[in-house]
């Protein structure tokens, strides 16, 4: 049909008539150009959605106020793309393919460019709106999906911690009672037989075992909270190094300490002691990779109403991607590790309104603890 000879009808009516007669051809050309995966659960809706958009384009020619309908279709398609786990880039490509096919088809209508241009401008505008609404909604739905997954992961994570608590409560308390008795009898033996060999080693190993059990109790959050007290960090560090002396000697580690005598905090002493013991033991363990020159530096400084405790060793570098993960429960690089030591440290420090983080390079690995001054 030669539309240029139809002077009695409007440009809009001529164009709609042309699209009615060529609709199937338009859809065929568009379907040949789009990306549709065979495994896409919503692949059958692609043609349906394309046809709906085609009908909207026809309505647009005489009814410019179709923004609500375009948005409704965009939201529908976005939901389908999320359900099929489709690539949003492929959707945008398909939309623009539909736009291109539509415009090319209109150009062949025989209507002059001057008459067509306002209509084409409106078509471009509504295709842009369609893309905008669909991509925005797709992003919102994907974010919601991600939040649900994270909620599930966190719940699973909490379930594991709960299970750990149940397991700990069932055997750790039972294990602790006989351990306390053994430690008591060893002290009696040291009093009655001060020259008896190996008692110091036995006592140290029992204290280490008691420390590990305390870690599990803290991880399960079943330990009764002790009262806070004023702690002089210089005295606490001296006590800790005395406790760890056998491990330091066994590891052939050179320990240097610098503690500001004004450093004091209000805290639960056993909990802060547990944190420092755990990190120092980890540092000693890391230094086993060094054949020689094993150095451990411990400093405590008074900085603007807080104390900064730094424990550094010259062992292997901790990779950047691991520096946050090491504080997560059950994360460990040790073949026999539980992955709760540093998690407990972080939990206890944050309980005391402090912060702990790790810095590591090829020369040193440092664990830095900030705690409010007492």
Structural account:
- By secondary structure, the chain is of the alpha+beta class.
- The protein has two domains: 3-150, Globin-like; 226-372, Histidine kinase-like ATPase, C-terminal domain (Heat Shock Protein 90), CATH 3.30.565.10.
- 61% of the residues lie in helices and 12% in strands.
- It has nine helices and seven strands, in the order ααααααβαββαββαββ.
- The chain has helices spanning 11-33, 44-62, 67-83, 88-107, 113-192, 199-219, 233-250, 269-286, 341-351; strands at residues 229-232, 254-259, 264-267, 295-303, 306-313, 355-360, 365-372.
- The strands form two sheets. A five-stranded mixed beta sheet has the order 2-4-5-7-6. The protein has a two-stranded antiparallel sheet with strand order 1-3.
- Strand 6 (355-360) and strand 7 form a beta hairpin.
- Helix 1 (11-33) crosses helix 4, helix 5 (113-192) packs antiparallel against helix 6 (199-219) and helix 7 runs parallel beside helix 8.
- The longest helix has 80 residues, at 113-192.
- The chain is rod-shaped, with a radius of gyration of 36 Å.
- Mean pLDDT is 81; it is low at 1-7.
- Residues 170-374 form the Histidine kinase domain.
- It catalyses: ATP + protein L-histidine = ADP + protein N-phospho-L-histidine.
- It comes from Metabacillus rhizolycopersici.
């Amino acid at each position: 049909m030669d539309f240029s000879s139809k002077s009695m009808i409007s440009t809009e009516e001529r164009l709609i008539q042309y699209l009615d007669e060529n609709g199937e051809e338009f859809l065929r050309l568009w379907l040949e150009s789009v990306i549709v995966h065979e495994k896409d659960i919503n692949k059958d809706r692609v043609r349906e959605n394309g046809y709906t958009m085609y009908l909207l384009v026809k309505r647009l020619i005489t009814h410019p106020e179709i923004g609500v309908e375009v948005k409704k279709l965009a939201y529908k398609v976005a939901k389908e793309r999320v359900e099929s786990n489709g690539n949003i880039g492929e959707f945008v490509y398909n939309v623009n393919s539909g736009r291109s096919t539509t415009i090319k088809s209109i150009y062949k209508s025989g209507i002059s460019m001057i008459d067509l241009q306002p209509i084409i401008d409106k078509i471009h505008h509504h295709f842009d709106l369609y893309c905008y609404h669909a991509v925005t909604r797709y992003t919102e739905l994907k974010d919601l999906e991600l939040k649900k997954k994270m909620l599930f992961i966190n719940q699973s994570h909490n379930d594991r911690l709960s299970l750990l608590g149940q397991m700990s409560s069932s055997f750790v308390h039972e294990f602790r009672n006989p351990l306390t008795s053994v430690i008591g009898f060893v002290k009696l033996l040291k009093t009655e037989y001060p020259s008896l060999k190996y008692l110091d080693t036995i006592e140290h190993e029992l204290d280490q075992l008691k420390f590990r059990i305390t870690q599990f109790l803290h991880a399960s959050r079943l330990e009764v909270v002790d009262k806070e007290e004023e702690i002089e960090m210089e005295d606490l560090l001296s006590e800790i190094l005395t406790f760890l002396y056998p491990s330091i000697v066994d590891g052939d580690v050179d320990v240097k300490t610098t503690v500001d005598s004004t450093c004091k905090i209000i805290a639960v002493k056993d909990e802060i002691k547990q944190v420092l013991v755990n990190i120092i033991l980890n540092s000693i363990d890391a230094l086993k990779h060094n054949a020689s020159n094993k150095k451990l530096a411990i400093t405590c400084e008074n900085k603007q109403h807080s104390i900064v405790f730094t424990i550094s060793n010259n062992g292997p570098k901790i990779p950047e991607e691991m520096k946050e993960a090491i504080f997560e429960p059950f994360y460990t690089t040790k073949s026999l590790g539980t992955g709760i030591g540093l998690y407990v440290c972080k939990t206890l420090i944050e309980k005391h309104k402090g912060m702990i983080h790790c810095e590591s390079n090829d020369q040193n690995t440092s664990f830095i603890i900030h705690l409010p001054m007492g």
